Amino acid sequence: MNDMIRDPDDCTTMTEVRAGVDDVDRRIVALLKRRFGYMDAAARIKPDRSAVRDEWRKADVLSKVDAAADALGLDRKLAARLYEDLIETSIAHELAEFDRRRS
């Protein structure tokens, strides 16, 4: 972790809190770029458009996120809400990319 970024429990000023949040947000955006790269790969690999929406896989991801949130002490309902949106956004992106590649 950056020496300038304090652990949340060690923050004593809002400047430190904001620097920490900004650092986390930069990392999240980088991870989202990587995650959506995998959505692009899926759109390239899947044989047909109907394969894009996979409810079994969605349930599997949500189950894994729930277990990870529980293990880390993160509010499981919060994680589920965030991931529901992320998964649906990912599916929409993958469908658009699937169509773009085949047009």
UniProtKB/TrEMBL annotation:
Domain Chorismate mutase intervals: 8-98
E.C. numbers: 5.4.99.5
Statement: the UniProt record of this protein carries the keyword Isomerase: yes
GO biological process terms held by the UniProt record: chorismate metabolic process; salicylic acid biosynthetic process
Pfam families recorded: CM_2
Chain coiled-coil ranges: none
Keyword Iron-sulfur appears in the UniProt entry: no
One Gene Ontology MF term: chorismate mutase activity
Cross-referenced InterPro entries: Chorismate_II_sf (IPR036263), Chorismate_mutase-related (IPR051331), CM_dom_sf (IPR036979), CM_II_prokaryot (IPR002701), Isochorismate_pyruvate-lyase (IPR008241)
Record keywords: Isomerase
Taxonomy, superkingdom: Bacteria
Enzymatic class: isomerase
Annotated positions binding substrate: R18, R35, K46, E94
Name of the protein: chorismate mutase
Species annotation: Sphingomonas cremea
Lineage: Bacteria, Pseudomonadati, Pseudomonadota, Alphaproteobacteria, Sphingomonadales
